[in-house]
Request: fold
Amino acid sequence: MSDPIVLKEEYDVVIVGAGASGSIVAHQLAKAGRKVLVLEAGRSTRDDEEGWASNVDTFHRAVAKVPNSAFPATQMAPQLDVLQFHNITPGVPDSSGYAVQHGPLPFGSDNNRSKGGTTLHWTGIALRMLPNDFRMQTQYGVGVDWPISYDDMKPYYELAEQELGVSGCVEEYLIPVKDKKKYWGDYQYPMKKMPQSYVDLRLKDRVDGLKLELGGDDYEVRVVPTPQARNSDPNPDYKDPVTGKRGFTPIGTQGDPLRGERCQGNSCCPAICPSQAKYSGLRSLNRAIAAGAKHGKPVTVRCQSVVSKVITDPVSGRVTEIEYITYEQVSYPPPQTFRVKANVFVISAHSIETAKLLLMSGIGNSSDQVGRNLMDHPTMLTWGLMPEPVYPFRGPAQTSAITAFRDGAFRKDMCAFVLPIDNWGWIWSSFSPEAYVGGAVGGGSFGRKLRQSVAHDVSRQIALQWEFEQLPDPGNRVTIDQKFLDPLGLPRPQIHYRVQDYTMRSMEQAMRLSAAIFKKAGITDFTRYQPSDVVYTEYKGNPYTYRGCGHIVGTHRMGKTRVDSVTDSWLRSWDHQNLFLVGCGAMPTWGTSNPSLTMSALAFRAAEAINKDLDKQTPKPR
Amino acid sequence: MDYPIDTSGQFLAISSVLTGFSAIELQGTGSADAIWATATTIVGAPILGDLLTDCGELFEKSKDIDALEAAFAKRVIADPRYGPVAKNFIGAWYTGVWAALPSAWCDAYGASGSDGTFVISPTVYKSGLQWKAFGGTPRGGVPTGHGAWNRPPLTPINTNAPKP
Ligand SMILES: Cc1cc2nc3c(=O)[nH]c(=O)nc-3n(C[C@H](O)[C@H](O)[C@H](O)COP(=O)(O)OP(=O)(O)OC[C@H]3O[C@@H](n4cnc5c(N)ncnc54)[C@H](O)[C@@H]3O)c2cc1C
Ligand code: SF4
Reply:
């Protein structure tokens, strides 16, 4: 590759990665009149009506409709993909995908590397963490405490719920929190709860009130509506946390205020929301661009630009420049390297790529924590047939969950878990309805008999997702190895991953609890775990299959001291004062909340700190 | 039973027996031409022509749909030449996917370079009978309206049919 070209243009802030994290920071900085450059490794995703429709088309053309189907990677900026994961033979790392998986278990979650990032294909569940999730060491003697508490995060959660557009009902979202008044205050979500599905309501009828024992205590099963970042009816009682004004206007399809202002039941989340009623990072990026234009400081977004190195001043420790490689999708002209200067740098390339970039640059790691404590929510499924039709495969992916086990004294010994109810039957456990049809036809079924069996069985399919908490484990980590390079010559991520007994003990209990719920509901159990499943494991001689949940967390955790963490609670690198690491990687623990709402709240905190830092350097004229 | 005289009518008639949906319902999906064209490219006109002709005989000899289904089970589904093709028709109608033909079938009748497993078209996927059979929504295909998912589908589905 040729020598780097140094850009003449300098910026207040350079942001690496145009996902939700980077885009939220960009928006907050643009609103304050900062000059911002966003560098994005992947494609410049079209989100105008016609372009978005072509992305939906790409999804429909995929035989295996997996999360990444609508947004394939470019050759030069590969991404993790669920179709790349396999069980690992001990001692033989699996290098067949983009990441080299060392195991012992495969890390089963994927990401997306295009403008908009992984929220192009997320499910949109937007849960706040519980107060005890922030103080696991103090409360339960496991994991670590956060440097901040739920109370510190509360105002930022409110900002994040506004940015993402969360629908939910504070009164109905029952959670194991003692002081609910203190937890919520007089808060109301921007939009009313997403209507619960017929699947949820039939199950609720049958199991609500069931008492289940765990760790010597009783927990009551209740099927409650889940808060989520997709558009529902606006809540007139919602109070804007910034202006204090009542009400909320949902944003849907880019460029068309009349489409997507409600989730329309396209039943396509996570893969792609055809109406854009579900939040994606593109929404925040578009806001950033609009804010920049308003302030006469355009936010510049450059795609197909892979950041390859962060350069620091050895004396001051400050980051001075960032190096990035641009590429074309054809072989000529060849990739070109650039360097750009700025006052502040933000890396928001998602947990694995952010850690990789720090390791590649040899910076920010005096704590030796970079890349460590990689976590997911290992997700086990149990599935069966309801005694009556529940008509799955309609509406959003999830509308309800059983939340009783999100906290409790059992967390001294085993992990918390949450049970979303799948609205799409056995899609995740056995690729229904396609595989159901395939199996029946393969077995010789056809005609009226085939039609009847699909009607009878698929209409009764139900699945519970058991999403388990993981604790930080320094051995679960991302490393780099110059022997394994991507097409631009940059190291591919090396992943070392296992699931601790703390989590396995709850999986073991879950089998018992699932059987009790199924019995109460009259569900005929079809759950089977077999060695050919990805990811298959055994615990105390029993089989378990779990999947990655898409939740990639914990590779650059924040903390109270520079000894055991990578950043402070404002996501500022301990080692480099003008470097901010924004994303799920910052979270030291995270309980059973899907991570992106907390990630977004932290992005608001980081943006606040950056704006303050920049104000100090160049005081605003009064 | 009656058998149409034109190719497209005949294809709908045999598809109706194979899928359990009426010819009118099948026509309503708008997928027939695309599925037939795919099969013609991959399987070839001689085998498909024979299939249509032989099915005509089954129609002629069967007095009702029970008899016709029984005849199809023996002479089409279980037939080494027609079976894999017929199963592919069912898969295409239900899921929108053409599946690569079995290697044993290809050994006997030859493989086309166009064969493979692929979605015939986004439209054929979205019109898949699998969704109509149990009242589901094709992924990203048909917006049902906000909140429609919290009650049973508008079009009643006979889900109580005894499990075959
Ligand atoms: C199937 C699925 C379902 C999910 N469901 C939920 C859910 O319901 N709730 C929830 O809270 N979370 C969910 N998640 C997780 C959620 O999507 C992520 O946590 C979130 O998108 C992360 O946002 P981010 O901006 O930090 O990273 P990303 O969105 O991944 O953005 C990072 C960006 O950085 C770019 N980048 C990477 N490397 C470089 C580089 N070297 N140079 C320049 N740019 C780079 C990437 O291309 C990408 O655009 C789900 C994930 C998946 C896969
Ligand atoms: S159900 Fe459809 S409209 Fe609603 S969020 Fe999901 S994909 Fe979007």
In short: Residues A 230, 263-269, 273, 275, 277-278, 395-396 surround iron/sulfur cluster (ligand 2) (CB under 6 Å). The domain at 5-491+502-553+569-617 of chain A is CATH 3.50.50.60 (FAD/NAD(P)-binding domain). The radius of gyration of chain A is 24 Å.
